[in-house]
Design a protein that fits this description.
Length: 193
Amino acid sequence: MSTAWTFASIAPAETPLPTDGYAPSGPNRWKQGLFSCFSNCGMCTCVLCCQPCAIGQVASIARKGAGWICLLTAIGILALNAASYALDYYAAADDESPAWVLTVASLLGFFASLAACLCVWNARAKYRERDGLEGGFFTDCFAALCCSPCAVCQMFAQDNITFEGTGRQYKQFWSTYGDGLEPAAPAGPASTV
């Protein structure tokens, strides 16, 4: 019997209010700092090797596990980059190519970078909203524009997703679970027959 993955299976449990009636003040902190991504070198390498796939993963998790968002994000960013590189290669190979070819190649590369930054920014905003985390619009913009791979690693760490070691193991870009995570453990006691 297989267990389907759900967003609730990796969402943190709600913390009960203290019995004295006072709620904790202030926002929660991220589990890992923005530049602490090197504490898990395996995940850092995975994010750097295929950043569009990793961005698709966190965008999917932030949107409650919608697999189509993962595919759309990764394929969109990869397609824009591939078209940019193809046009750039064409312009370099043909000395008589029109000037607009380099302009279009540059614009496609810009739109690929913009799409990646917007996806990371949106995912961070969803994570902050979901977990009540510190930060705001400008910190999310800074993280998305200046250090996108670190921000993606930080979001993976927020859900305790690791490449190696303890935590939920990251499997691959598109696994049988639809999100690259191990399935959640079944609830209730196991029956013995």
